[in-house]
């Protein structure tokens, strides 16, 4: 990972520059976290906890607090039982529904995941449930070709629920292991579009008991606080089971997933690290926390 | 609760400090704590927030309080005015070259809305200004990117220039401009592939496109939901390419859109248009005053104050 390897730790730097755990130290720590899009409220909660800890354990040396900071954050991401792996059925078909706002990386992630599942020996089928955006069906078809899996599609403008219905039929007939359903990007405040999505989900529920086995909300790491609204609203409409955090190959940190985990307890399952078919990885909380506090060499030079 | 209760919180803060003729430093301090939180919740970059608060505090202290306002409201008034001023005037103009075609290059991160906005802008110029634009498909990387632009072209009945995905974007741009000259198109919109500002190869490619066709406008298309990273993206694109303006997309959502302020503060570039939907007519001029109250997230408080 190019963006991680060249990093020095901001916390290390912070720890080096402060001799004492004082208000200034906490203020700077606060800024680092806000700068990573963690979100004000979550940051204030974290800082309060750390201050408590420093007080009760009488920690004065910043170095001593360092591991507590990372631990605290990683702990927040580990919370709950889920270990972050995808719920793939060992018996019978698995259906995964992808949802999210416009342009976050749903279709691309489906292409990457199809490739990965196929490499794991699964048979995979894709449902072209975005019948709205110009070129969306063709885009998914290109990914289908790359991954070597078929795509079930209708015309542009068709009812997405009908596409998904036909895809399930086809998946059953072909006895495939995993069906990945693409949907059109939609902003969470568009009530009619959210209703449309609920309908798609209901079709899946009706046709296969226990499905969808995952509803993955794709979140762009560049996104700020709005991702919380996304998680809330998509969560209400479709019972989101996990997040895919895309575009972590950029300079954005995606810290909002900490707040989402903190407030809504939705785990991150996968991360996107580029536009190529192999650029998808399981989420690693420790590595993520390390990334939150790191900065690239360019910034480092600037500071010198 | 991230966005709730801000107006309420400010209101109650406002209540506490009333009945004085001048805004005192202590009042400003109390208010600025809330304003700082509001701006951070709206995704304004924390460094930009710091500068802004400092500047506004200096101006607010010692102000005479208007008769109809409380000192707290007076402070909010100042904040709102400064914010609006910082966001800039209304500049929804696209350059027009003395020697057509005017060349407009669309750049930005992946998925920001470049292709969609190319269609919207071309549509806007034809409808509102009687222009005859050509769109050029210079994204050879994203699967079906050319198809996407061609579909939009068909919807709009607008010509799209393409050489497939085996020709370099530099060559596509060059030939598109040539074609526009021959066909007497007065605008060319070059839709480029999304890329990270830290991707050296792809940024170099944009520099070469720029060199080849000397665009009159290089517009950075930015997703209005962007968080703290907006400053890095905008600064970096601007440094490497010399941008002429910004377009904010997806403002039809419920984001507060603090990225607008961050970008304006670090680059000084005009925000020219905003995208308000996926359809080809969902484009509007940028209004700094509306953006300011959206970022502050207290439309009600502001209406109250404006009436004062
Ligand atoms: N750098 C980077 N780009 C990505 C990543 N994932 C997706 N992209 C790019 O982001 C853009 C949008 O991706 P899509 O897969 O089309 O997103 P989507 O959510 O399906 O978009 P809509 O269907 O329009 O809502 C494309 O240019 C992708 O190549 C990632 O992890 N890193
Ligand atoms: N709701 C809404 N959606 C928008 C707006 N502008 C663009 N979109 C949607 O955002 C998604 C991405 O738009 P594109 O035009 O493909 O973005 P792009 O920057 O060309 O993407 P890449 O070429 O992959 O980098 C699509 O689903 C668009 O329909 C807007 O103003 N509002
Ligand atoms: Mg898609
Ligand atoms: Mg595009």
Query: Regarding quaternary structure, how should these chains be classified?
Result: heterodimer
Query: What general form of chain B does the structure show?
Result: elongated
Enumerate the spans of chain B where pLDDT stays under 50 for 5 or more consecutive residues: 1-5
Rounded radius of gyration of chain B (Å): 22 Å
SSE arrangement of chain B, N to C: HHHHEHEHEHEHEHEHEEHH
- In terms of DSSP E residues, the strand content of chain A is 5-15%
Write the layout of secondary structure elements.
The complex is a heterodimer of chains A (304) and B (308).
Chain A: H1 2-5, E1 8-9, H2 10-17, H3 23-35, H4 40-56, H5 62-78, E2 94-99, H6 106-119, E3 124-129, H7 136-147, E4 150-152, H8 160-174, E5 178-183, H9 191-207, E6 214-220, H10 226-238, E7 242-246, H11 256-264, E8 268-272, E9 280-282, H12 285-292, E10 294-295, H13 297-303
Parallel strand pairs in A: 2-5, 2-6, 3-4, 3-5, 6-7, 7-8
Antiparallel strand pairs in A: 1-10, 8-9
Chain B: H1 6-16, H2 25-41, H3 46-60, H4 71-87, E1 102-107, H5 114-129, E2 133-138, H6 145-156, E3 160-161, H7 169-183, E4 187-192, H8 200-213, E5 217-223, H9 230-241, E6 245-249, H10 259-267, E7 271-275, E8 283-285, H11 288-296, H12 299-307
